[in-house]
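Hey team,

Filing this mostly as a record. A colleague (T.K.) asked me to run one chain through the structure pipeline before their review meeting, and I want the input and output archived in the tracker in case anyone asks later how it was produced. No errors, nothing strange. Just documentation.

Input sequence:
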Amino acid sequence: MDFIEQSIKGVWVIEPVRFGDKRGYFSEVFKQAVFDAHVGHIDFVQDNESFSTKGVVRGLHFQRGEWSQAKLVRVSMGTVLDVAVDLRHGSPTWGKHVAVELSADTGRQLFIPRGFAHGFAVLSDVAQFQYKVDNIYAPQSEATLRFDDPGLGIDWRISREDMNLSDKDMKGLGLDDMTPEFLGF
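Output structure:
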């Protein structure tokens, strides 16, 4: 596996090696010892999966305080634009984002540490999205950063008219609302 740290410290693209022939391919998508050697030790406690259609934008989601989550995300069907926004107060990249295309074709993954909002946009007809988290889901601490906050400057690669968003994601909070007291991290 290749580990490529992104422009925001702690965010990594992981490119698993694929061994292919006429039957298809084999790939190790996660190996604890290799992950630990490059990123550091993370105890993943839950695996999640979503299925979405073209134009769906999910996020930007995060959990506050002690329920904050690190995520290791990948796509097993289709293509998405995956986005992580740094909400770690005191970080030199606070409010900045990383956007990475993930697809089943490449097998690329993205590791997002605690203290980030996360979301993705489906670029293909359908997408199956899988991710590991290091903390359980706690609905009382869940929050949403507005996907189209002008201070973020995210190019979702989908026109606003073609986006399919949940009511929760349409009502996300602005970047200015992300105070240390609100975030709890």
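Quick notes for T.K.: Residues 32-38 form the longest helix (7 residues). The CA atoms of residues 27 and 71 lie 20 Å apart.
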